[in-house]
Amino acid sequence: MMAARVFVDTNILINAVVPESPQYFHARGLLRRLERSEAEMWLSRQVLREFLSALTRPQSFAQRYPLAELLHNAKEYEHQFVVAEDHDLVTQQLYLLLEQVPCGGKQIHDANIVATMLTFNIPQLVTYNTADFNRFAGLIEVVSTL
Which of 70, 92, 118, 140 is 20 to 30 A from 112 in CA distance terms? Predict the structure, then answer.
């Protein structure tokens, strides 16, 4: 069951625009179901940057995408989702979170997503990478989409 507010992880957005992705149809269907539900769909500026970064380099299931196409997709996502701004309160929440949950390297990006969710009171995260967020159990609910 979906909460009133749901944060959508980058990997869902990537899979929804790459027809070669094994999860392409699932990701597109998931986004359609979320749009029809009464849940507010959230993402952050970080997620938009990750989306652009990931698809401007070759993936295991696709080649690099043209930047103009990706910019169009990112702008569409900005209109479809509520965008959480990465401001001072998110940074302060990240510092508090890192004192509670040890993280390092790329895990800091995941921690920043959780800090954003906590700051904006978004209880659920929809992601294909559930294992990446197990360390934050009890703080957010990770919704497995597979």
Answer: 70
